[in-house]
Amino acid sequence: MAAGRARVAASILDADLSNLVNAVRRVEKAGADRIHLDVMDGHFVPNLTFGPKTIKALRSRTQLPFDAHLMISNPGRYIEEYVAAGCDSITIHVEVEEWEEVEPTLVAIRRAGRAAGLSLRPRTPIAALERYRELIDIVMVMTVEPGFGGQAFMKDVAREKLLPARELLGDVPVTGEVHVDGGINRETAEFAGAQGVDVLVVGSALFVKGHDMAREIRLIRSLADEGYQYGLNDGVPPIPRDRWTTFVTLPKHIAERAMAVIEKGRIPVLVLRGRDGRMNPDGVRDYDVAVPLSAAKLTSERHAGERDRWLAEAERWRYDLRRELGVGPEDPRGDAADAQARVPPR
């Protein structure tokens, strides 16, 4: 995984469609973070590409996540097929004619354990997504007319929609993502990053003959992070997405309860056996409740009071367990003796 904030999703629309396996392997080797799959039906957009069978055939050739972008008229009819094909996220268009199918389709995607996204054409206002805000994990802003690769970036559309898209995902503070799709290259990446974009979909810029694909990906990601740093973050480098920090360290049964509480606010949590955690009277070390470093401040704002209560509960639990095991809190042998106190004599 890349060290910065921005992520590059490599679109294989402009690759050699007769050898997509090679295209997938190339972008993975070059350091792309994801594979972006443009699915077109010749009806919703004036072009045809591939469908779930092709995606399923590619799935075993890479470990990279698959982001499916369904530019089709009846997405609800095919969600099960794209889930079965191995797509990690599925984005549909808010403009589909069967607009009443948008909500149940998003629900079906999320029930399948996939990230659900809504995309909108350049002329569609961001307000069209408002009614679905509680059902989406991804907002994909099209900065070209969907249907063909290699088009010019619509800067005015990006300026108008990308920051509002970030605000729309305010209830999904960590895993919610703004994607920008269309005309992204080294010339446009910095501007997109300054609009708060999380994932840049890059297609034709990666498949220029004679270009170093790996260098292109590094440049685009770096420029997007620089745009974010100076455009939105007061010159401070963005927090890398792969960094985690310990929010609190607790006995396992309390740590698992803390995880459930924090995750209700859509902040991901890892509960890991603490390397430096104290040894409890039952012989089990404390567990670290870890959150993404980018969400540390938000987690503290939401749960600082609960953290104090969890820590107090842990102390009461340890005290009661020591009494039950007959090991006093002032035992000079310390916690190691606590662990041994519960071992019956042979």
Would you give an account of this structure?
- The chain has 2 domains: 7-231, Aldolase class I (TIM Barrel, Alpha-Beta Barrel), CATH 3.20.20; 244-341, no CATH class.
- Helix content is 35%, strand content 17%.
- It contains 10 helices and 11 strands.
- The chain has helices at residues 20-30, 52-59, 79-84, 102-111, 155-168, 189-193, 213-231, 252-263, 296-325, 335-341; strands at 7-11, 34-40, 66-71, 89-93, 115-120, 138-142, 177-181, 199-202, 244-250, 270-273, 287-292.
- The chain has an 8-stranded parallel beta barrel with strand order 1-2-3-4-5-6-7-8, surrounded by 4 helices. Strands 9-11-10 form a 3-stranded antiparallel β-sheet.
- Helix 1 (20-30) crosses helix 7 and helix 8 runs antiparallel to helix 9.
- The chain is elongated, with a radius of gyration of 24 Å.
- The model is unreliable at 330-346 (pLDDT under 50).
